[in-house]
Queue: 3 jobs
Job 1
Amino acid sequence: MSLDRMRLGGSLAAAVTFSVVLAGCGSAPAPSGAPAAAPAADGAAVRVVASTNVYGSIVSAIGGDRVAVTSIIDSPDADPHEYESTPADAAAVNEAQLVVVNGGGYDGFATKLVDAAAAKPTVIDVVELSGLEPAPAAAPEPAEAGTDEHGHEHGEFNEHVWYSLPTVEKLADRLAADLAATDPAGAATYTGNATSFKGQVDGLIAKLDAIKTAHGGDKVAITEPVPLYTVQDAGLENLTPEEFSEAVEEGNDPPVAVLNETLQLFTAKTVKALLANAQTESPSTTQVEQAATAAGIPVVPVTETLPAGVDDYIAWQTGQIDQLSSALGTPAS
């Protein structure tokens, strides 16, 4: 039986404040024959559109007051998998000089907006930039067995690449280069901001390394694949049945046997923490969180987009990583 994927915003998002692929281009110029977006005029802010506020916050960190950023998804209630763009979104992309998309099938609405724009902006596809997945040769085929309704396969690639800290550092460098190409007068500012930002990301990597040193091999569970790069980089082992986390991500009920297998992780106290997507709730995730709480296993809330009241990527990730460290028994450094 299918269920609607429910996004939780408002008070819950505030409570965790700190707690279509672009073919062939990671940073794509305008196609031959297409009008390119105009370069920044002297003193004018570079117009940038990001598919989500996660990427918007990173653009702001690199661009500072030399950029004007529009994040299409800027609410914890919106689901990038299911988002339907608006005329205002189309207008923003049509006027943008740079667009940042996640790619990998996560935010196909953004790719469609770029394809429909009259003036083609430079595009950064972060999945392609990451090097974590070979760039596909063509757009995804219609959904078939083994794929979700968005036409991309699960179990092969985790598209939530903004949780990959090395990828975020690559993005900082690419943003500095592409912003400088549009606004040469700001090149030194962009490079300096990228260097400073990457230093902060290095601090996050150090926190994960510390968890790995103290707790490498510890077992955890998740409700969705969202934080798996964090789990991997912290040296932790995810024991959640893949069929459970994929079903939740796709808005489906996992089979009863799979749900029971997942619940057993908590009743048997096989895992030390549960990383739960605080922006999505279903009967299955509620049961899992209740089982963890009843067993005295800490629940670490994570989110796909910035929670309400948070506009800084580093602060957001610091809060989540520190909560994970504390849940495993090591106070945050």
Note: The CA atoms of residues 27 and 124 lie 4 Å apart.
Job 2
Amino acid sequence: MTTLAVKNKEADAYSVTVTEDTLTIELSDGRTISAPLAWYPRLQYATEEERNNWRLIGGGYGIHWSSIDEDISVSAVLSGLPSGESQPSFKKWLESRNR
């Protein structure tokens, strides 16, 4: 019996767009992936200026928003994983913004 071994190399991001309801990432291999902003509550509650203030980290393996202390990996978006932040942590962060 033969098996097919597939090397799974994740593509890296080179461009990010955040709208009022969607996170869209352009990948170096030509794909474009999107996820609902509801998966990332910090981005959902961020201002437009904060959403647009991102930088690539790890050579494009992740995206960082310093003003809202949010990091999202391309791998997580490709896997369909929403934010892993706990509700208590998010609530504390949201309360700190309202002060």
Note: The first helix runs from residue 41 to 45.
Job 3
Amino acid sequence: MSERISGCILTPQGWVLGTLSFDERITAIDGTPVPAPRDGEPVVLPGFIDVHVHGGGGADVMDGNGAIDTVARLHAGHGTTSLLATTMTAPREDIEHALADVGRAMRERPAGAARVLGVHLEGPFINPGKLGAQPGFARVGTIEELRTLHELARIRVLTLAPEVAGHLDFIRHLKIAGILPQIGHSTGTYEDGVAALEAGACGFTHLFNAMSELHHRKPGMVGAALAHAEFAEVIPDLLHVHPGAIRTARRAIPKLFCVTDSTAGAGMPDGTYHLGSHTVTKCLGGVRLADGTLAGSVLTMDQALRNLVSIGIPLHEAVRHVSTNAADYLGERTRGRLQLGAHADIVVMSPDLQLTHTFVEGEAIELADA
């Protein structure tokens, strides 16, 4: 049965004051173009897309046994309509256990949950010298291990350190296999980053974090990203990255997209949780290892949008960072935009950007508690 939503609708052509009709797909958008949202009117936006999410609602993707359902429901309740289930660096059997669960959820979306579009394999093919909050199971990537994991659940994005011996050739294989290689958890130089991009790397994992920093005589991986990348992730919880650095990345990287990098503590009270094999503590708006290292986040995408607007980014541009750019990166042409025939992945927010409705492929989602 067709449903209708009225308000200021953000289409690829701009704002329309009117009505959006939909079932599982968008069937009509009727109204009058306006230059900006009208005061007092709700805003109707494309659903958020999170390419890097480890957990939420007390569950971690690495738990398996239905954990991804909990994660996908928690984030759907905050406006995320599709996501990539993201793994941790771990022994092979642990990753296989997690991916078997993700594959099940991909085959049939659980009710009330975001669509799981695939896997972001963050590790184990990273530099052991730049683990960040990843456990110490880093190893060199092999085609054999990749093939086994990919058969369990489709890998869409894979984070790796390109300076590790053999990884430039591995990047070339990933591209042939249709997997997007991302540079991250890397001690590599600017030159290593450029070489990786030339080999086929497509983006950078949580830009600025867990990679060699920008210095004017040693530009590092950050310099390679700012100089050459079309796509890169950034975590806009305002803890991982300073607002000025987010602004810098926006000017340099045409299709910067936001991720939460959220963990089991997202949507939960302060306390102790786990991230892969690590024990982490949620407090003061973040999540950390015992030594104080940031260990993912407790960010949700509705808050990510509000954070971007709070630092002066216009709403229509902020929406591209939490939705459309990630869809473009993944090649998802019927998500991340409100247009005829697109999936009815829809977020409705009040004028002060509080979430009021979320629809995943036309299904009304129960919103999470604030």
Note: DSSP finds nine helices and 20 strands in the chain.
